[in-house]
Design goal:
- Keywords: Isoprene biosynthesis, Magnesium, Metal-binding, Transferase.
- The protein is mostly helical.
- It has a single domain, classed as Farnesyl Diphosphate Synthase (Orthogonal Bundle).
- The chain has a two-stranded antiparallel ribbon with strand order 1-2.
- Strand 1 and strand 2 form a beta hairpin.
- It is globular.
Length: 299
């Protein structure tokens, strides 16, 4: 891949743009349910890389023109993702006190509000994405994008992956099951982001299938890199506790194959994704650069 000029600056511009859109869609902190809105917004405004909204918009840009229709989906996917982080951190699951360098939602608002604000964010994501109907005359694209979003989020996607992960926590599991967990827990939302972006932009079925293939490889590479960083990084650099996999006796790509083999796998998967993206008739050099960066990241 040729070197992408000014990648860091370009990413900053796009992150700021995604941030502005996300904040525009956040609930107002008013009325009797104000605390819940505050808890939702606390997690939504905790920084974060905003990768999923960026991936959604950049994929949209390969196929479509009027970006307004993508905006509710950019906010929605980040709400879905953030809800999963709030719930992941709960005492019943990972029991983590820090996320993105600050206290987790349940540490600030209590466990009950952690549960409720997570569920509420998940629902608010759909309330937000349904707003896309008012922004386009092509209602069919919105319907198809919503179907992808809900499928990749629920039992057959991220939440299914999380349930298998939780159920087998600390147990010996096979590589097949680990792949299932990663494909669903992590890849599914990356697939949802990129496929929804493509569909909203007007991609056909074949193009959308190719995007799904690339996104699947990106998600897997991203998660394996996460395993590697848990062993090789520091909590200052990562913004969350390191060696938590070891502490929780988690089976990961690193425990199964070691850092070196896991790194080779990351390289292989990100190259697969790059090949698929480069093979499409519409190209987006920034998107390809971002995909490669996601796999080699340090935090």
């Amino acid at each position: 891949m040729e070197h992408y000029e000014n990648f860091k600056e370009e990413l900053q511009i796009r992150t700021a743009h995604a941030e502005e859109i996300i904040r525009r869609y956040l609930p107002e902190e008013a009325g009797f349910a104000r605390t819940m809105a505050e808890a939702m917004n606390y997690s939504m405004c905790a920084g974060g890389k905003r990768l999923r909204p960026i991936l959604l918009l950049e994929t949209f840009r390969m196929f479509g023109e009027d970006e307004r229709v993508a905006e509710p989906f950019m906010a929605g996917i980040e709400m879905i993702h953030t809800h999963s982080l709030i719930h992941d951190d709960l005492p019943a699951i990972d029991n983590d006190d820090y996320r993105r360098g600050r206290l987790t939602t349940h540490k600030v608002y209590g466990e009950a509000m952690g549960v409720l604000s997570g569920v509420s964010l998940l629902n608010y994501a759909y309330e937000t994405m349904l707003g896309a109907f008012d922004l386009t005359s092509d209602k069919d694209r919105v319907i198809r994008a919503l179907k992808i979003m809900s499928n990749k989020t629920g039992l057959y996607g991220m939440l299914g992956g999380q349930s298998v992960d939780v159920e087998n926590d600390g147990k010996e599991i096979s590589r097949e099951m680990l792949d299932y967990i990663y494909e669903h827990k992590t890849s599914a939302l990356i697939e949802a982001s990129m496929m929804a972006g493509a569909i909203l932009g007007g991609a056909d079925e074949e193009q959308t299938a190719q995007i799904e293939k690339a996104a699947s490889a990106i998600g897997l590479a991203f998660q394996i890199q996460d395993d590697i960083l848990d062993v090789t990084s520091t909590s200052q650099e990562l913004g969350k506790p390191v060696h938590s996999d070891e502490k929780n006796n988690k089976v990961t790509y690193v425990t199964l194959f070691g850092v070196e083999k896991a790194s080779e796998q990351v390289q292989k998967l990100s190259e697969q994704a790059e090949t698929v993206l480069e093979g499409l008739s519409s190209k987006n050099k920034f998107l390809t650069a971002l995909v490669m960066e996601m796999a080699s990241r340090r935090k």
